[in-house]
Specification:
Elements (H helix, E strand, L loop, with lengths): L4 H7 L15 E2 L8 H9 L8 E3 L2 E6 L6 E7 L8 E8 L3 H15 L5 H10 L4 H6 L11 H6 L9 H15 L2 E4 L2 E4 L4 H5 L3 H6 L4 H16 L4 H5 L3 H9 L6 H12 L10 H10 L9 H6 L5 H14 L10 H6 L7 H16 L6 E2 L5 H9 L3 E2 L25
Helix pairs in contact: 12-13, 14-16
Length: about 400
């Protein structure tokens, strides 16, 4: 017999959910063209090891937690980027009409389906340095976290850490505090609720990899959300300036964290998170600038859409890793010849030559032929040898991503 939810939370464990095999008819998620589902989900994930937002075999999988109980959702584009036919089905869980309506509403938010992609696309293509990336990411929407607490819990662990470290910490939190359901012999996790974290002891939170300060911050934020002292509707009704001031008044939330929460949690694309090292690194690479070149004027040129640069910088990094398939050329691009810009991978390789003088003193790259075969694997993992596409300075490319733990698609 499964333990009661309250008892499971006191132990720091999530209650189990056993769900039988079934599948509901697909429901349409209308959206304007173009729409690049893979690029949108990959930018939402940040890294393939994300255990909640899963991309597998051209499908997006996610467990949602409506009042009716956990449901496993699968989203697929049955059309093309230029003629999207986005549909979702409930793979497991309660498939009532109310559940389907609620799931559709959440998915529209997460995937940015109500946004008009054309102004963003035209803005990026107008910037010569970003044109190749803009065409490759054509149809990518700025994704959003599913709720206010998820936004906080997807930002605090990343403070002053790499994406890889932050994703690993969040994955442990999800496994420790998130509810899950079992389907096809595997577990699929929902993101932990504010209630689960608000009632947690600090020791289990720290065991996930959080520092003492971050564990305290996250629990305090969970209690703020759970008590209703701060609601999503209240933040949504504020101007961006007022929202930034409100968020930075919370414990452990500085300007960068507040900016990411507004951008990724509320879709405020007029915010570019200040001091975001990863985004700045990717933008400098695309613009062929040195590792310390200022970007303020570039960001300000995008005005009220400056936050879209953040997503494009992350998308460009994921493109260079082969985690996003470039969008095919549109018919209008083929007619005008605009479909043959320098490939993004070539732009990144060219940029290496531009900034190598800045990084040579920091990172010495040794030709692979000069390294004993028995030592090559270890050195490759530290990126200290030249191996084709891996011949990139640390300032340009993040470490390689771990594999997706979920594996194959549900069939």
């Amino acid at each position: 017999m499964n333990p009661p939810v309250s008892k499971a939370r006191r132990r720091g464990h999530a209650p189990r959910r056993h769900v039988g095999h079934k599948m509901t008819p697909r429901s349409a998620l209308g959206t304007s063209a173009p729409f690049h589902l893979e690029a949108t989900v990959r930018v939402l994930q940040r890294r393939p090891s994300n255990p909640v937002d899963i991309w597998a075999h051209d499908r997006y999988l996610r467990v949602l937690a409506p009042p009716e109980g956990l449901v496993l959702i699968e989203v697929e584009d049955c059309g093309t980027i230029d003629v999207p036919d986005v549909r979702f089905s409930i793979r497991a869980g309660n498939a009532s009409s109310a559940t389907r309506i609620g799931a559709g509403r959440v998915l529209r938010r997460i995937l940015g389906l109500d946004l008009d992609p054309k102004p963003l696309q035209h803005l990026m293509e107008a910037e010569h340095a970003f044109r190749a990336m803009a065409l490759a990411l054509r149809g990518m929407r700025p994704p959003r976290f599913a709720g206010l607490f998820e936004a906080f819990a997807s930002v605090v662990p990343f403070q002053q850490l790499s994406l890889e470290a932050g994703v690993a910490i969040v994955a442990r939190m999800v496994a420790k505090f998130g509810q899950y359901l079992e389907y096809d012999g595997r577990r699929f996790y929902a993101f932990p609720t504010a209630q689960a974290i608000a009632g947690a002891r600090l020791e289990p939170l720290r065991a996930c990899g959080l520092s003492a300060r971050k564990a305290q911050t996250l629990r305090d934020l969970a209690r703020v959300v759970e008590s209703g002292a701060l609601t999503e509707d209240r933040v949504s009704s504020m101007s961006t300036g007022e929202a930034l001031r409100t968020l930075t008044a919370l414990p452990g939330i500085g300007p960068w964290s507040a900016g990411v929460v507004l951008l990724r949690g509320f879709g405020r694309t007029d915010v570019f998170p200040p001091g975001d090292v990863g985004a700045a690194r990717s933008l400098r690479a695309l613009m062929r600038r040195g590792p310390h070149a200022p970007l303020t004027r570039v960001v300000e040129r995008f005005g009220e859409q400056r936050g879209y640069l953040y997503f494009c910088a992350l998308g460009g990094s994921l493109l260079s890793k082969g985690l996003i398939h470039p969008a095919p050329a549109h018919a209008s691009q083929r007619k005008t010849g605009r479909h043959t810009p320098t490939p993004l991978s070539e732009l990144v390789r060219t940029d290496v030559a531009t900034v190598e003088s800045h990084t040579r003193r920091k990172l010495r790259l040794i030709p692979e032929a000069q390294v004993p075969r028995s030592e090559r694997t270890a050195l490759r993992s530290e990126r200290l040898i030249r191996t084709g596409e891996r011949n990139l300075p640390q300032e340009i490319e993040e470490p390689p991503c771990p594999p997706n733990p979920i594996g194959r698609s549900i069939r």
